[in-house]
Design a protein that fits this description.
The complex is a heterodimer of chains A (406) and B (332). Helix content of chain A is 67%, strand content 3%. Chain A has 406 residues and is mostly helical. Chain A has 2 domains: 97 residues, no CATH class; 228 residues, MetI-like (MetI-like fold), CATH 1.10.3720. In chain A, the strands form 2 sheets. In chain A, strands 1-5-4 form a 3-stranded antiparallel beta sheet. A two-stranded antiparallel sheet of chain A has the order 2-3. In chain A, α10 packs across α12 and α14 runs antiparallel to α18. The N and C termini of chain A lie close together (7 Å). Classes of the chains: A mainly alpha (406), B alpha/beta (332). The interface between A and B is medium-sized, with 21 and 30 residues.
Chain lengths: 406, 332
């Protein structure tokens, strides 16, 4: 058992690293980066120059300036070319064939290899020199995926996930703080979801094709089909704006001055009623249908007939014989539940303006906040891997036929 | 008048009268059933205490449905089932539950009829406790006794069904049924899922237990050699109806109904020199949703007459305790 868990955890490590590579590649493939978006309007108004943007980007670690490298460090990667302040090569002893580590581009983003492809006699060093002597300020070497990812990975292994571009704070700190808000909301919603959906599913199955079954099924289908943002807005519009029963955004009322902890708590609860109701109503449908289907399958099994023939009471038949076996597939759902428990409800938190982790992740994602998105997605990946492991272990607990030996 | 006598006769433990079970297969717009599958269509027979009746017939003829109807595992459409003088059809659910220990069933498939989540001891003993047949102090001892009687080793108590072979699982099923000290046991093809060597063990176990505990069996099977071995009486079913029934010896010596004759001719004889004189039935069994008019067997009968296609034959006694429904014999 312990051996199995250790083996699984080591495998998980591999999975997480793979996931982080994919996430990094995806983020870097986004057409616009954070700096471009942020300074778009200033750039068009002319208050910020293109060169400033390059410098800012450099500050965010999105790219490295060729020339500054030459000036500041004198060495470029492993090419071994050394430049003086004018950009002249001062040392050419090294092998030039390794120059393909990063792509050389000019300030407008055109690759130098494209620009000089007609002039076959020029070497890459000549390109650089021509660019510099032609008065080009910024010859940039875009950080290659490997370089950027490597830096990120090494920092991450040291526990440093970097500063969030948007929130300006340490990413680990932000996640650690906001996770618990999301966790509290999701946990309450989850418990309610289970308490409501499972008995409903059992009832629907035991009264198959009855009025109860149809009512529950129709409501469940509505719950599954309604999009969160639409239903959330509907709930907000009715109960918050029209009737005014509940506050319409945030976690606490800002007009609350020096509250005691009890009023503070009640205020929070008051704020969370609508988001939790939205979450629960939209999620019970799936679970209820799932329970119903599994329950129906089990109820038609031969051993249920055996239990009835034994003269067990109907309650015993349903809850002891049928429901126990229904639990097995429900346990698989644990794997999916754990990430959603800590990962926050992105859309719901957005609609109700809750300061949870899902909301932050949404904002970070649309603006290209690389460190935050990386850390958040990695966090989800770790949770998913752990959730799967946990549900595999739970199988052995709920189903005596499963034995974990390896 | 004969039916009234049957109830008063204390030797008769099970009296099935005009039992019908129709399953709705099509409904109209308002959900009212319009077409029925006549799984069991007017079956009557009686069983004496301590005896075994073998019910034979090909697949889909309603044997299993009839067995389940006797225990009311299916709701009965019409007809009556008297068990020990009690009309099973009229019992409320709670009364039915109370009487369950006295009438038990052994299912056909020992692989699917045991709950995978319960250990063997609990499968056998659960209902014993639920019906308070023994007190808590003697519970384990009692279950172990039953297991021992059914040829199960006592250390199996805490194991789960999936750890056993088919024969052992069927022994668990038998132990489960017998732990409730039943008077009547419906054996619904208890050996057809097992291989031949195990079949003999299980049949002999059932016979030993019958002798020791005075059980009455309704033994449902499509295997005539098994039925011949275990039964005192035999009932032959075709398409939901009983076509012939009576003493085993009489039926085997003198099968009256053409269907029974065809069935018996199909039993293999383990002697290569014997020339088999098989009656091969033409065609498939008709659908019980749309049974043929007149005698249900007329579509496949090799002695079919004109009257067979129009008039359903009466079920009559032709010699003492030997009933048959066929136009070949005097119907008056």
């Amino acid at each position: 058992m312990v051996k199995y868990i250790i083996k699984r955890l080591l495998l998980s490590l591999l999975i997480v690293v793979g996931v982080s590579v994919i996430i990094y590649v995806l983020i870097r493939l986004m057409p616009m980066d954070y700096v471009d978006q942020k300074f778009q309007s200033q750039l068009s108004q002319g208050t910020v120059q293109k060169e400033d943007i390059e410098r800012i980007k450099e500050g965010y670690g999105l790219q490295v300036k060729y020339r500054d490298y030459a000036v500041g460090y004198g060495w470029i990667g492993r090419t071994g070319l050394k430049y003086d302040e004018e950009g002249n090569i001062v040392d050419t002893n090294n092998d030039k064939s390794t120059l393909d580590e990063g792509i050389l581009i000019d300030a407008s983003g055109v690759a130098l290899s494209e620009k000089y492809k007609d002039n076959k006699s020029l070497s890459e060093n000549d390109w650089v020199q021509r660019e510099l002597s032609g008065g080009q300020e910024a010859i940039c070497k875009i950080r290659s995926f490997f370089e950027g990812y490597g830096t990120w990975l090494i920092n991450a292994l040291h526990g440093d996930f970097g500063q969030s571009f948007k929130f300006g704070d340490d990413v680990g700190t932000i996640i650690g703080r906001q996770m618990w808000i999301s966790f509290a909301i999701s946990l309450v919603a989850l418990v309610l979801q289970f308490i409501i959906a499972i008995p409903l599913g059992v009832q629907a199955a035991t009264h198959q094709y009855g009025a109860m079954d149809y009512t529950v099924t129709v409501l469940a289908m509505m719950g599954i089909s309604l999009p969160t943002f639409f239903f959330g807005a509907l709930v907000l519009g009715l109960f918050s704006l029209k009737l005014g029963w509940f506050p319409y955004q945030g976690l606490n009322d800002s007009s609350l001055i020096n509250p005691t902890w009890i009023t503070h708590f009640l205020d929070t609860v008051h704020h969370l009623v609508l988001p939790i109701v939205t979450l629960v109503i939209l999620s019970i449908g799936g679970l209820m249908r799932y329970t119903r289907t599994n329950m129906l399958e089990v109820l038609s099994a031969d051993y249920i007939r055996t239990a009835r023939a034994k003269g067990c009471s109907e309650k015993t038949v349903i809850y002891r014989h049928a429901f126990r076996n229904t639990l097995i597939p429900v346990v698989t759902m644990l794997a999916g539940i754990i990430p959603s428990l800590f990962g926050g409800a992105m859309i719901t938190e957005q609609v109700f303006a809750l300061p949870g982790i899902g909301n932050s992740a949404y904002q970070a994602l649309i603006i290209g906040d690389v460190p935050f998105v990386m850390a958040y997605n990695l966090f989800l990946a770790v949770l998913s891997v752990l959730g799967t492991l946990l549900s595999d272990l739970m199988y052995a607990v709920v189903d005596p036929r499963v034995k974990i030996t390896k | 008048m004969e039916t009234v006598n049957a109830v008063e006769n204390k030797d008769i433990i099970l009296d099935v009268r005009h039992l019908k079970k129709y399953f709705p297969i099509a409904t109209n717009f308002f959900g009212k059933p319009t077409r029925f599958l006549k799984a069991v269509d007017d079956v009557s027979f009686t069983v004496q205490r301590g005896k075994t009746i073998g019910i034979v017939g090909e697949s889909g003829c309603g044997k299993t449905t009839m067995g389940r109807c006797i225990l009311r595992l299916h709701e009965i459409t019409s007809g009556d089932v008297f068990f020990d003088g009690i009309n099973v059809r009229e019992l409320s659910h709670e009364q039915l539950r109370k009487i369950r220990p006295q009438m038990q069933i052994i299912f056909q498939d020992p692989y699917s009829s045991l709950s995978p989540r319960l250990p063997v001891g609990e499968i056998i003993g659960e209902a014993v406790l639920a019906h308070k047949l023994v007190d808590q102090a003697h519970y384990r001892e009692y279950v172990l006794d039953v297991m021992h009687a059914c040829g199960l080793q006592t250390h199996y108590f805490d194991r789960y069904p999936h750890e056993f072979s088919g024969g052992q699982r069927q022994r668990i099923c038998i132990a489960r049924a017998l732990a409730l000290k039943p008077k009547l046991v419906i054996c619904d093809e208890p050996v057809s899922a097992l291989d031949v060597s195990i079949q003999a063990q299980i049949i002999n176990l059932l016979k030993d237990l019958q002798r020791d505990m005075g059980l009455t069996y309704v033994f449902i099977s499509h295997d005539l050699s098994v039925v011949e071995h275990i039964s005192d009486e035999i009932g032959v079913m075709y398409l939901g109806s009983m076509v012939e029934s009576g003493d085993k010896e009489k039926i085997f010596a003198n099968p009256l109904h053409p269907y029974t004759q065809a069935l018996f001719s199909a039993v293999p004889v383990p002697d290569p020199n014997v020339k088999m004189n098989r009656i091969v039935l033409k065609g498939d069994i008709p659908s019980p949703a749309n049974p043929p008019k007149g005698c249900k067997f007329h579509t496949r009968c090799n002695q079919c007459m004109d009257i067979c296609k129009e008039v359903a034959p009466k079920y009559k006694e032709y010699e003492p305790n030997h009933f048959c429904a066929c136009h070949l014999y005097n119907q008056d």
